[in-house]
Design goal:
The protein is α+β, with helices and mostly antiparallel strands. It has one domain. The protein contains 6 helices and 5 strands; from the N terminus they run H-H-H-H-H-H-E-E-E-E-E. Strands 1, 2, 3, 4 and 5 form a 5-stranded antiparallel β-sheet that branches. Helix 1 crosses helix 6 and helix 4 crosses helix 6. The protein is elongated and about 55 Å long. The N terminus is likely disordered.
Amino acid sequence: MKTTILLSALSLTVSSFTVIPDFSGSTSTPSSQEMAKKMLAAFQHSSQQEYTSLFPSLTEFHQFMVQQANIYGEFLNDAKRDFAADYQKKTLPALAEAFDRIADEGKKKGIDWNSIQFVQVEHEDIRDQQFSMAGFSIVFKSNEKEYRLVLEKALVMNGQWKVTQFIRLM
């Protein structure tokens, strides 16, 4: 029962923020540029750890769950425990896999990750600085050719942009 409530609450929260990226009229913010440059640095350094450090910590998610305690009711502590298990067993490995997949795809496309150069960042407007999801795109160059890293569902938590495992290389 509590697992059903946890999954339902998280599903409602995440699905309510599912978006199709539309970068028309988008602008970059200091936070978005900072995250974009840190993401590129993670690929330059071939560092999964740098990439996953740009994802919200378990503590940040737990704080958000506490702020939404009315959704969880008496099952808040159970939900936090279940979420922590999924975070460790599923989410963090998915982030690492996404990083490796993009690094490998880039090598196959001829990207020299050591020499990539940041060009710009674009993102959708965000509605809620506390918690939101939005399309996010980083334009970068390698060997004078432009590429794009697209996070279809970048997170914004407390005004800070965060990475997710939903990433594509274009």
